[in-house]
Amino acid sequence: MRNTLAETGAFFPRDRSWHPKAFTPDYKTSVLRSPQKALLSLSNTVSEIAGPVFGHDMLGEMDDDLIYNYAKPGESAIGERIIVHGRVLDERGRGVSGALVEFWQANAAGRYRHKKETYLAPLDPNFGGCGRTITDDDGYYAFRTIKPGPYPWPNGVNDWRPAHIHFSIFGHGFAQRLITQMYFEGDPLISICPIVNTISDPEAISRLTAPLDMNNTIPMDSRAFKFDIVLRGRRSTMFENRKEGN
Amino acid sequence: MTQALNMLKESASQTAGPYVHIGCTPNFTGIEGVYDEDLGKVMVNDDTLGERITITGKVIDGSGTPLKDALLEIWQADHSGLYNSPAETRGLADPNFKGWGRQPTDMTSGVFTFETIKPGRVPFVEGRMQAPHITFWIVARGINLGLNTRMYFGDEEEANAEDPVLARVEHRVRVPTLIAGREGNTYTFDINLQGPNETVFFDI
């Protein structure tokens, strides 16, 4: 443990031209679910700067292992065994410690375990599809899973999602709250996906695409993909009547 | 030339999609045995201080149809106006109240419900007091970046009248979209994503 005081500065404003816009009609559901009026800008008060934190003791032993956390004893999920790992950083490049990272995904065939899901590909009886972990002191996280399959969806007549893992991340302040998706290096479906293409800047899409990481691949066991996540940075608190300084 | 700022860019948001429940409320969608209980489902216990309230409502799209696949999170101060967070510098919040909750909308009716307590007042940037409020964050299929709004309390007319955030809403006709009406101990807060009664959303 370090005697580091919590930071209490306001967050950097979001770059809303880098994020997807609300109204992105090629992703059809956004048409009726996008506000039409301008957002009201609000300087961060303590309501936005503060946020919930989660202790490592909330985690179950298998929470970061989707190959086994829903499997029957002695069995495991079917699919390409992979490790996904990386750091949660802020925009100043510093690791975000104690960040709760939740993830969910389809199975190897592209089928989600969800009441409303009707895709004809089969469920894997040993795969649930949810996991979570908390970053260490340097912001690192890792989990083990199987690589999800692509998935057809009723948007265009023949639209398919690239293989992806959904991520939900808590930083230290509620204004850092973020949900995003991780894609896999080399997937030809990425460039033609209407959800990916709600993001207009190709560089922002690259940052959501995880490269194969042979250095962390475990021989004869699992490949690794590296996925760093960046949350909003926060202003240094110098000259904000805070004794502890910057 | 100058030194480079070398700031990183925030990871771009993507929609939570229709199956957000798998990751965030797995027990709700029938994935049982992985987590004991869905995170954020229960906000209060027997020892939590403050007035017990229920918040209920719907998230409604531009056609008037309630969303049946939305996920909402709320973040609020305790009964005395303190946040249970390391960034809270004014004192220690009620240890029996985390201040954060998460609920899905019902898959048939679209109704969400939070059982919580009424928050105390917290200061604005320069120290003036804000009216009691709860921060809402809404994600769903079709929402590319989570939407932020606030719920204020209909029975706090005096505090609402001097709230620095409500005062910034230029089009006064839109202020009521942020205020929940009270009946008994229940506040009803409908969130309209689009259209004439569109809720005020914030860029925080």
Automatic annotation (TrEMBL), chain A:
The keyword Oxidoreductase applies. Its EC number is 1.13.11.3. CDD domains: 3_4-PCD_beta. It is an enzyme of class 1 (oxidoreductase). Residues 84-112 form the Intradiol ring-cleavage dioxygenases domain. SUPFAM superfamilies: Aromatic compound dioxygenase. Pfam families: Dioxygenase_C (PF00775), PCDO_beta_N (PF12391). PANTHER family: DIOXYGENASE, PUTATIVE (AFU_ORTHOLOGUE AFUA_2G02910)-RELATED, INTRADIOL RING-CLEAVAGE DIOXYGENASES DOMAIN-CONTAINING PROTEIN. Belongs to the intradiol ring-cleavage dioxygenase family. This is Protocatechuate 3,4-dioxygenase subunit beta. It comes from Flavimaribacter sediminis. The gene is pcaH.
Automatic annotation (TrEMBL), chain B:
Its EC number is 1.13.11.3. CDD domains: 3_4-PCD_alpha. Keywords: Dioxygenase, Oxidoreductase. Gene3D superfamilies: Aromatic compound dioxygenase (2.60.130.10). Pfam families: Dioxygenase_C (PF00775). The keyword Metal-binding does not apply. It comes from the Bacteria. Residues 55-83 form the Intradiol ring-cleavage dioxygenases domain. The keyword Endoplasmic reticulum does not apply. InterPro entries: Intradiol_dOase_C, Intradiol_dOase_core, Intradiol_RC_Dioxygenase, Protocat_dOase_a. One of its GO terms (molecular function) is ferric iron binding. PANTHER family: DIOXYGENASE, PUTATIVE (AFU_ORTHOLOGUE AFUA_2G02910)-RELATED, PROTOCATECHUATE 3,4-DIOXYGENASE ALPHA CHAIN. Belongs to the intradiol ring-cleavage dioxygenase family. This is Protocatechuate 3,4-dioxygenase subunit alpha.
